[in-house]
Amino acid sequence: MSDRWWFCLTHMAVEPDEGCPNKDRMGPYETREAAANALKTAAERNESWRAQDKAWDDD
Q1: Where on the phi/psi map is residue 20: left (φ > 0), alpha (ψ -120 to 50), or beta?
Q2: Is residue 22 a part of any domain in this protein?
Q3: Nearest alpha-carbon partner for 4 in 12, 18, 13
Q4: Residue 59 lies in a domain
Q5: pTM
Q6: What is the domain extent for residue 35?
Q7: Backbone dihedral angles phi then psi of residue 36, each to the nearest 5 degrees
Q8: Taking the CB of residue 12, how many other CB atoms lie within 10 A of it?
Q9: pLDDT tens readout for residues 3-37
Q10: Per the structure, how many domains does the chain have?
């Protein structure tokens, strides 16, 4: 069993190390649950950066 997990952006599904090419995935994550929350985690981090850096969206 894999000890690293990925979220596949092509299939919108959690995968073990043996899966789609890394260019199509987010990760690696230490747990399957963390990989399943990859999009939520990314959205939360983006919002945090926007809140810290008001110039983020000024391009």
Answers
A1: beta
A2: yes
A3: 18
A4: no
A5: 0.80
A6: 5-53
A7: -65, -25
A8: 8
A9: 899 999 999 999 999 999 999 999 999 999 999 99
A10: 1
